[in-house]
Write a structure and sequence with these properties.
single chain, about 180 residues, alpha+beta, two-stranded parallel ribbon, 7 helices, 5 strands
């Protein structure tokens, strides 16, 4: 089986640091937001995907990389065209991620909004947990979901809530209506 058939991984630079991406023949299987180093980014990503060879991304992955880079430069990209392999992702998480993917750049929704769309406002905490396990950030834009009080809420990407706030600032979103620390 060739690398194109079995998949691979790569790291790439963005305005917020070095991100990682992993793929199989049909879809992206993981995206990793920046860690302190490029090696740390790759290592964290491969903890969830298992060992994959570093290789040249096929065209659909290169398009995903370019989309993430554009988004992190402030382009209003929704990245909905990027195919994602949801094998092993719990059905509830898939439903949460589908809702998150419909949130436009620069827009925000609350955990409660997402829970309500799922049919039960009481699922807010479960929504937060699903987003905290998102293996596709920022293609699944979990950073666009905030707490009801307008605060950013948790964020499992490297740098935590500060990374979330930085990503929102790049998109022109202001949680709680307050300007970003980066303005």
């Amino acid at each position: 089986m060739s690398e194109m058939e079995s998949g691979g991984c790569a790291v790439f630079d963005t305005a917020i640091g070095t991100c990682g991406i992993a793929w199989n023949a049909q879809a992206v299987i993981a995206v990793q937001l920046p860690e302190a180093t490029a090696a740390g980014t790759r290592e964290r990503m491969l903890r969830s995907t298992g060992a994959l060879p570093e290789s040249t991304p096929p065209p659909f992955v290169q398009a995903a990389i370019e989309g993430v880079q554009a988004l992190m430069q402030g382009a209003p990209r929704d990245l909905c065209e990027v195919p994602l392999d949801m094998t092993g992702v719990p059905e509830f998480h898939q439903r949460v991620y589908a809702i998150a993917r419909r949130i436009a750049p620069g827009q925000l929704r609350t955990y409660g909004d997402v829970a309500e769309e799922l049919g039960d406002k009481g699922l807010s905490r479960a929504v937060g947990q699903a987003l905290g396990r998102n293996p596709f950030a920022p293609i699944v834009p979990c950073h666009r979901v905030v707490a009801a009080n307008g605060k950013p809420g948790g964020f499992s990407g490297g740098g935590g809530a500060l990374t979330k706030l930085r990503m929102l600032a790049i998109e022109g979103a202001a949680p709680g209506g307050t300007p970003s620390l980066f303005d």
